[in-house]
Amino acid sequence: MLTYEECLAMSDLTEEEIAAIAEHEHMDTMIAMALGHYLVTHDGEQKIREIILDDIADARHAGNAERERVLRAVLQHFIATHPEHGRSNVA
User: Fold this and answer.
1) In a domain, 52, yes or no
2) Helices 15-25 and 29-41: crossing angle, nearest 10°?
3) Are 74 and 14 contacting, i.e. CB atoms less than 8 angstroms apart?
4) For the purposes of burial, counting CB atoms within 10 Å of the CB of 61, is it exposed (0-12), middle (13-18) or buried (19 or more)?
5) For 29-75, what is each residue's pLDDT tens digit?
């Protein structure tokens, strides 16, 4: 059986990126990890970027400036590590 850390290493995503997917999709982190890995390996980086942008907007609307700040850092890291689809329209 694979550990969480082994799955994380294979996902090509960070814990924070996976947490953003889990939050947006209302799912367990292990399922979000599988979804994120699928998206990364099937040209779905744009979808992950949109998920993080949606989470940023939700945090802004909720008045949660700290969460918004964290998610902006997550987005910047995601764009830096997955540059294929991320340079335009950054929130």
Assistant:
1) yes
2) 110
3) yes
4) exposed
5) 999 999 999 999 999 999 999 999 999 999 999 999 999 999 999 99
Q: 46 lies in a domain?
A: yes
Size (the chain), residues: 91
The structure tokens listed for 73 are 């850092």
Q: How many domains does the chain have?
A: 1
CA atoms within 13 A on the CB side of 72: 12
Give the CB-side neighbour count of residue 52, counting CA atoms within 13 A.
27
Supply the angle between the helices 29-41 and 45-61 in degrees, to the nearest 10. Answer: 130
Q: Is residue 91 part of a domain?
A: no
Answering whether pTM is above 0.90, one says no
Question: Does a structural domain hold residue 90?
Answer: no
Give the model's pLDDT for residue 83: 80
